[in-house]
């Protein structure tokens, strides 16, 4: 199963409400995925890079960040939320920070990196995950959430979606891929690194690789139809973009609603009912093997 | 004219009230507001009543319908009117996949598009879609008609037994054992009757349609295929 929700705002007036709208959508999809939940929020831009770090508990993470600042000499802006902290590091310092973390703090995961994107994910019911991170209080231009019913790998925080393998890029997935091991080996030879044995992370890596090679988000998704084997409904976010793709057989459910103010995605329509103006929205089912992409200008 | 608001009344209360109706009931017009995409709304009806649902519904709406006329003023999720036996189900928006699956009778009218597997294993229902239908529609269809004013997706009528498929637009591809057949007067008459039942008499010309049906080559085991098993 698994549940996916996504909200891409066209009208900036709704930005302060992004978190509260997405939180309600995520909670509605609990029945489709009670094992873990996660979400990506595209909030305010920073000059450097926002690294979302996750530790085993808030105190341990705070201690590690303090040691990191002392060791590297960078004083970073910090925004702690439960087990995660968003650390704004100066442009150019990302590699140094990552290297220090890898060497000195193996229990700390870098969940995401980007100018705008922050990712939060934990094991547990979607409502409790959203509350722990105060999703309802977040603002931003677009966000993607996922409730997981695990099939291909264990119920762990690292197995929770969204997955991110590139700056400001994230992907959530309902379905399962059958050629992910082979593809992971091929992408590893291209220099990509993977943190888990999860099939979805490979799909995220595939899109990162394609876009690194010059493809647009839409082109990368188009070629994934040839190179990925399996069942999938994907929802993808980039710094300014939002896209949806279903496999050619359309195994996994998807429904979308579009108004002048937003584009919304849900695994079921139930997830969309609290959105403003939904009664007048154009509600449609995305067609199989067709890339739907929106871009903010 | 009872009205159910599904934000204040439970779905079970609605379906229970509809199931309790006697065949001679005077309460023949029902309105459901705030369906909010809930699944299994107005399923298993068996009375000559009208139910108007004001909004988008989830899965299996009006499933197993008998006699009743159900109008959905919005989008319908997976399996609308699945296994319908008689009556009339009208979707004013789009319908998701497996619309009218296995239905034995009655009519399913969809104003918008229908997703994949529309009319899968249909057994006598008349389905009319004003928009287009997705892939694998009428898969293993056994009886009834599927009329499409728009286009049909890939593998239309795969492994078809009987059933008549009328498509006005393009067909992406035909499934195994499904072929185009001659459109004779009897078919134009039948199609006209279905268009009329959908309120389209005079608006849509039956001569613009092509007919597809079973080549009947899969009915019996062919000894030349023995090596495949």
From TrEMBL, chain A:
Database matches in Gene3D superfamilies: Glutamine Phosphoribosylpyrophosphate, subunit 1, domain 1
Alphabetic keyword roster: Glutamine amidotransferase, Transferase
InterPro entries attached to this UniProt entry: GATase_2_dom (IPR017932), Ntn_hydrolases_N (IPR029055)
CDD domains: GlxB
Occurrences of domain Glutamine amidotransferase type-2 (ranges): 2-297
Pfam families: GATase_6
PANTHER family in the record: AMIDOPHOSPHORIBOSYLTRANSFERASE
Annotated protein name in UniProt: Glutamine amidotransferase
Organism placement in taxonomy: Bacteria, Pseudomonadati, Pseudomonadota, Alphaproteobacteria, Hyphomicrobiales
TrEMBL record, chain B:
Signal peptide: none
InterPro entries, per the entry: Glu_synth_asu_C_sf, Glu_synth_lsu_3
Coiled-coil annotated spans: none
Top-level taxon in the UniProt lineage: Bacteria
SUPFAM superfamilies: Alpha subunit of glutamate synthase, C-terminal domain (SSF69336)
Name recorded for this polypeptide: Protein glxC
